[in-house]
Description:
The protein is mostly helical. 75% of the residues lie in helices and 1% in strands.
Amino acid sequence: MHSSEALQQRVKQAFNSIALPDAPSNLYDPVAYTLSQGGKRLRPLLVIAACDMLNGDIEEAIHPAVGIEIFHNFTLLHDDIMDQAPLRRGKETVYKKWNSNIAILSGDTMFALANREIVKTRPDVIPELVELFNTTAIQVCEGQQYDMDFETQIEVTISEYLEMIRLKTAVLLACSLKTGAIIAGVSPVEQSLVYDAGISLGMAFQLKDDYLDTFGDEKVFGKTPGGDILAGKKTWLFLRLLEKGGDNRKKLLELYDQHSEMFPADKLGFFKAEFIAKGIPGEINDLIDTYYSAANESLEKLAVPAERKAVLLAIIESLMSREK
């Protein structure tokens, strides 16, 4: 068994050892720039933590882990173009630092690089890994399309929103855990339990982001809370407010629209007060706890000694207790 710190260090070493071609520089410099920004490196950590928990060899899992993280960063690079986001992790996004065409092509290259890494493992598991990865990649794109559709779709239900975040966020965390399980050589039943844990974890993770975006401490969260409100994004918080809005539903939609004439500070204050008055912060935290408990319950069903689950459970706990 490896400690969480040892697993994190192995992920860091793997990314530090990535060698990209020097030319053409306008293709590979943005890739290097994107990968150098770090982030949580959550997905590769989940791959090798699951593999380690299930008595697999983490060295057989490290390249697929890197591939999944490269893919994740590719999706962020293209998301920034679609969202016209100027900053990512406090730095200029690729399309702002270079241009949109370069960002698109560099992102395409990252997708190919991700596929290359996925297959650097034992030959017997490659077909299963490739099928899982490609299915997940398609689902993530479906989730992104739903997310964009919701920007102009007036009627969005909470169930539709939950399905969107399952596709956009949760399936990649589930893919990460299942990739580790496949490489460890466990049964399909055990793979499904690990995958289910990843789905529940991903749902809790995204809902926590929704909560922190509105109610996080700016000094800890690292950015000014309220970005979702100002952008008029239909998060779980707002959709739940609409459900409770009654006759005020139409007015709430008008005020929440990103083109609303309300001053930003007034808009933030108004909707935070509305959320609090309706008890919505408590409700979303209860839902987060429900998904978090479901992730733990799936892992508890694995026929693995408790001490082997400890590292992965600690990683999950740290994600749920985070404030940024």
